[in-house]
Design a protein that fits this description.
Mean pLDDT: 92
Strand content: 15-25%
Organism: Gordonia jacobaea
Low-confidence stretches: none
Domain Thiamine-binding protein: 4-96
Pfam families: Thiamine_BP (PF01910)
Family: Belongs to the UPF0045 family.
Protein name: Thiamine-binding protein domain-containing protein
Shape: globular
Amino acid sequence: MIAAFSLTPSGGDAVDDDGGMSEAVAAAVRVVRESGLPHQTTAMFTYVEGDWDAVMDVIKRATDAVGELAPRVGLVIKADIRPGHTDELTGKVDRVMRHLS
C-alpha cells in the first residue's frame, strides 16, 4: 500500500518563531526516514509505501512524535491499497510519464 499522510500540529511548542510548524513536521519526517520504508516528502504530504501494518505503524509513530511537541495533532490519510504490488511510489509516476513523453 501507499499512504499519503499529513500531520498538523497545533498549540503548545509546535509553532516556530516564524509562525510555521517545521520543527514538529521534521520530527514526523524523521520517523518516516528512519523506518526504512520507501517514502517521499512533499510540501503538503508525506508518502510511505509498505504493507498495511508497517505503514500504519510509521504513521502512528510519526503522529506520536508530533504529539510530543503539540497538545493537539490533526491527521489526514489517503491510502492506495493494492495487494501484490510493490514499488508503486515510483511506478505510478513512471507510467504517467511514459504517456507524456
